[in-house]
Amino acid sequence: TLGTQTDYRDGEAQTDPYSPEYVVPGGSIPELLMLATLAWGRGLPAGLAEVEMIERAREKRAWEANLPAMDSASNITKRRKMMDHMERKEWAFREQEIEKLQEVRLEVLKKLLQRQEETQNKLNAKRLDYHWQNHQKAKEEKIKKINRDCALMLRKLIAKRKNVMGKLERRDIIKEYTDFASQIYAPLSRNGYFPDNHSERYVVKSFYLDTFAGLCELEASLADYITQVKIKAPKPMYNATETGYIKRSARLEVTLAQVHQ
Predict the structure, then answer these.
(1) Which of 100, 126, 193, 208 is the S-S candidate for 187 at Cβ 3.0 to 4.6 Å?
(2) pLDDT of residue 1
(3) For residue 157, how many other CB atoms are within 10 A of its CB?
């Protein structure tokens, strides 16, 4: 009256087919016993190869039944010829089986070689891509260096063109002070100026910062709202009762006010 459901298929839970025990009567040779070597997963269920094997076994048993008896010289000669013919037939069949097996192995080998070639081609493509990217980076760096050198040489040529004859020019103080890129504002180290040697000149020195009396005087000059901070408590958003309870009507009023805004 109850039904069950599993997480597995019937095929996954199925075991090998059951093979019951049997008794062979005396004097009989059942044909089914010729297939005793076959088992589930090793020839069963029977395919085309197994059917051909069964047919060949039947033909061989029929051939053995038709062999002449060895009671005379002619029968012995005939029996030997039939056995030679059957032996050549079996060897030819065996050669065909070997050729089929070799063809199957050759196909497997072709597939393996093709797969290996595809893998090698992928590796070669990755390697070529890696080298191409490295060459591209080197090319870009070389182009940047050429552009920097070109800009430097152009600046040098422009500077030389300004004074082609090599005449000495007087110093224009007004022009130097109006140009913030001149030697007045940005002196060059190659001209003998090192700003780190006189760094103490940029330190701020003040009476109000270096002495205690100056700090007291500076503090006294400040307004009261700077030294004495006053903090105003924020107004509550809701109108609470004396016990601190917030009524529902107060919440609704605040919500309506926000919606109205």
Answers:
(1) 193
(2) 66
(3) 10
